Amino acid sequence: MSSTRRMAALAVVGLALLALAGCTGDDEPAASPSPTAPASAEPTPEPPESPSAEPSAEATAEETPAATGIVLDAAGVGGIAMGTPDPRAALEALLGPAEQETNDVACGPGDVDALSWGALSVSTLEGALWGWDINPHRGALSADVVVASGVTPYQPLSDALALPGATTPQYLASLDMLYVEAGGVQFYGSGSDAATSQVELTGVNVITCG
């Protein structure tokens, strides 16, 4: 055999041995890398709930309902202002015809006249609306007539003392009454003990002879 053929044969044998070694080798194939799991997205934080607004004191405060009817207060009678000249027609439009008329009321500060409807008396000074008072000894008070303060005769004088701005009770010995003023309205209570006294008379510019 020529040297050229011998070398070719050896080359073929070498290749075969290499192929056999690759098939029967102990080395295991490298494990395929497992795919990396994508990182989970961070949850988006929920915006914090804003605290509910507390209702304002004005909204939560219980409002005192306004008096309805023919309201008596320091400003006037049923919307007729103090100082209104010749108020009789307007008063009778509200209250009906006067049940009693008194001219030159005794113990008044001048030319005082008065018109009365049961317990209610309304006075004029020099022809202009000047005052009012409620005296249950004259008769009953119409259901349409309302005292703005809510304090009327036969209630405890302590109710008047509880009104805003109420004055300290003053004892009037000549009348045997206690005198209290609150919001421009006068209250006269029986006796000298404020703890047990009850309102006997109330009004604005009340005329008493004593």
Report on the structure:
- The protein is built from four helices and twelve strands, in the order ααβββαβββββαββββ.
- It has helices spanning 3-24, 57-60, 88-95, 157-161, and strands at residues 70-73, 76-77, 80-81, 100-102, 112-117, 120-125, 128-134, 145-147, 170-172, 177-182, 185-190, 199-204.
- The chain has an eight-stranded antiparallel β-sheet with strand order 4-5-6-7-12-11-10-9. The protein has a four-stranded mixed β-sheet with strand order 3-2-1-8.
- The chain is globular.
- The model is unreliable at 6-41 and 55-64 (pLDDT under 50).
Q: Can you tell me the overall shape?
A: globular
Weakly predicted, low-confidence segments:
6-41, 55-64
Largest sheet, strands/sense/barrel = 8 strands, antiparallel
Strand order of the largest sheet: 4-5-6-7-12-11-10-9
Total strands: 12
Q: What is the first-to-last residue Cα distance?
A: 168 Å
What's the SSE pattern? HHEEEHEEEEEHEEEE
Task: Give the overall average pLDDT.
Answer: 81
Count of runs of 4 or more consecutive helical residues: 4
Classification by helices and strands: alpha+beta
Radius of gyration: 52 Å
Estimated share of beta-strand residues? 25-35%
Helix content, binned percent: 10-25%
